[in-house]
């Protein structure tokens, strides 16, 4: 934890899933994830992340090619290692694919992927994605066995799950926070040593991102829910002002 801050560029992948969640709440086209992706790109995002879930509760199939066609920055498609998702990834060949565990009933991606216990299946799932030109990442807890297994099954990247670290902060448990942060530092160093590129994400916000961004081996953070929620709040004043202006204009 005393490692000096790396001078490596730390990329920001913006996850736009929850723009689609808002859109889907009304069933129409607004707010449009493509517009969100373009705004993210204009604001300096280094990539756009989308999670196509089995139940399609946020991003839907048509969103992927629409966002791909609209932006110039790399697309990172998060998916479960199922036959259906493999077919979709191979059809659209995003620059990056991040394999995540997925349970239908969970509200978000709750834990890391079980790589060590599912190595043969993941090896077979990853090979064609790599052959199609996607850079393959596995979303794992900062656990030595899982990181070593990620290297063995052919992943090029691991994304370390920061959810537990964020939850310990929410709970005010400083000892657990520090222990988890140490695991993230050690895990990132191990992954780097094994030749894996190291990313991280889940639950990050303005208050908790600092210590994570300081992990020297990290080259990318993927952040979604907080950014979209914050954008709603910081954008509300502008949106209300514009509505007020249009209403007043109609009465002139
Ligand atoms: N990285 C991965 C692999 C994820 O599954 C998610 C959530 O979809 C994120 C990053 C972003 O997490 P959050 O929305 O909490 O910022």
Write the layout of secondary structure elements.
Elements: E1 11-15, H1 17-26, H2 33-42, E2 47-51, H3 63-70, E3 75-79, H4 83-92, E4 96-99, H5 119-131, E5 135-140, H6 144-152, E6 157-161, H7 163-170, H8 174-193, E7 197-201, H9 209-213, E8 218-223, H10 225-250
Parallel strand pairs: 1-2, 1-8, 2-3, 3-4, 4-5, 5-6, 6-7, 7-8
Task: Characterise this structure.
By secondary structure, the chain is an alpha/beta fold. The chain has one domain: Alpha-Beta Barrel (TIM Barrel). The chain contains 10 helices and 8 strands. Strand 7 (197-201), helix 9 and strand 8 (218-223) form a beta-alpha-beta unit. The relative contact order is 0.14. Bound molecules: pyridoxine-5'-phosphate (PXP). Pyridoxine-5'-phosphate binds next to strand 8 and helix 10.
Oligomer kind: single chain
User: Residue ranges: pLDDT <50 for 5 or more in a row?
Assistant: none
Question: CATH superfamily assignment?
Answer: Aldolase class I
Element-by-element helix/strand order: EHHEHEHEHEHEHHEHEH
Present as ligands are: pyridoxine-5'-phosphate
Assign the CATH class: Alpha Beta
DSSP strand content: 15-25%
Number of strands: 8
Strand order of the largest sheet: 1-2-3-4-5-6-7-8
